[in-house]
Amino acid sequence: MNLKDKKIIVLGGTGFLGKHFDSILKKEKLKYSCYSSSDINLVSPTINDNLLKYMFDHNDNDGIVVINLAADCGGIGYNKANPVALFANNMKMILNVFEICKRFDVERLVNIGTVCSYPIHPKLPFKEEEIWNGYPEPTNAPYGIAKKTSLVLSESYFKQYGLNSINLITANMYGEYDHFESIKGHVIPDLICRFIFAKANNEKVMNLWGTGKPTRDFLYAGDTVKIVLKLLKSGHSDFKPINIGTGQEVSISMLSYYIARQVGFKGTLEWDESKPDGQPRRVLDISKLLGIIGEYKFKTITEGLKKTIDWYLKSIEGSLGGI
Q1: Nearest-angstrom CA–CA distance, 91 and 61
Q2: Any bridge partners for residue 111, and if so which?
Q3: Which of the two ends of the chain, N or C, has the fewest CB atoms closer than 10 A to its terminal CB?
Q4: Do residues 248 and 181 make contact, with C-beta atoms less than 8 angstroms apart?
Q5: What is the rounded CA–CA span in Å between residue 75 and residue 90?
Q6: What is the tens place of the pLDDT at every residue in 239-254?
Q7: Phi-psi region for residue 139, left (φ > 0), alpha (ψ -120 to 50) or beta?
Q8: Which residues contact 45 (CB under 8 A, 6 or more apart)?
Q9: Is residue 54 among the annotated active site residues?
């Protein structure tokens, strides 16, 4: 697919991952528009018709590609506190996106899914065919199950309406623009904030949730964007899921050590084992992805953390007394 001949619409395009798309699409000089939830409320049962016509207006020679990043999600604390909203809001968004894409004859829809859709104890590494083989980890289940419905809708809309879509199951993403200092913060931005402020306040002990033993496959958001573009350029259009991750496990305890070292925190770490760990291990099998796009050099966790921490420190420069 020649993306220079397409109009790209990014839904959820001003959020964490959307800002990475905005940056890279701009560098590639592609025709695109990013829309936020304040532009188009995908949870609403009725969406402004004139707005939709404006968004999807295109020349007859152009095809439309929709990249759906819209989601209501957060870290383990947010997920535990908001299970109903997580399920209902994500279901409404997904259903609205499919209906809009069908109505405006979209050439390709890209859905960004989540590793939270996998069962709590799948075989390692997680293979795409395992995704229906059990209930997800309970903390993340409402979000994971809602996002997994895009797989059912993709097959149904293709068979009934000919809508082509790609479903990507992403590992735990992180990077610049993430939710820092927020109840929606995931583990990496949450730890970065905590370690930076602990150093600034000369704290000697850092108390952390859980045991530190769980592992995650951490994916730098900029790599996600580049892989999505590679998949689109390849012409891939199969609706069956594709894992996007690094294929490498990093424990939460090792992640904490990396972050502490990079921000200069020299205190001790204490683990509160009364707090939940979440899923014990997560690592994705990416052989299907590499079979489509070829070899790909992912940012290492230390490289990605440095970019993320440097960006965050710059964003709060002057507020921490010269840290």
Answers
A1: 33
A2: 68, 167
A3: C
A4: no
A5: 15
A6: 999 999 999 999 999 9
A7: alpha
A8: 92
A9: no
Kindly indicate whether the domain formed by 3-174+218-244 is annotated with CATH number 3.20.20.300.
no
pLDDT of residue 128: 97
pTM above 0.90, yes or no: yes
The answer to whether the beta carbons of residues 150 and 92 sit under 8 Å apart is no
Secondary structure of residue 216 in the 3-state scheme: strand
Q: How do the domains of the chain map onto residue ranges?
A: 3-174+218-244
- Mutual orientation of helices 252-263 and 301-315 as an angle, nearest 10°? 50
Closest CA to 304 of 245, 226, 213, 218: 218
DSSP string spanning 2-45? Answer: -GGGEEEEEETTTSHHHHHHHHHHHHTT-EEEEE-TTT--TTSS
With CA atoms as reference, report the closest residue to 293 among 222, 213, 189, 223: 223
pLDDT digits (tens, 9 = 90+) for 36-78: 988 999 998 788 888 899 898 865 557 999 999 999 987 777 8
CA distance 110 to 107: 10
Q: Is the peptide bond before 125 cis (omega within 30 degrees of 0)?
A: yes
Q: Could you say which residues of the chain have pLDDT below 70?
A: 58-61, 182-185, 318-323
Number of H helices, E strands in the chain: 10, 12
Active-site choice (32, 143, 174, 312): 143
Structure token digits, residue 320: 């921490």
CB-based contacts of 191, cutoff 8 Å, min separation 6: 208, 255, 256, 259
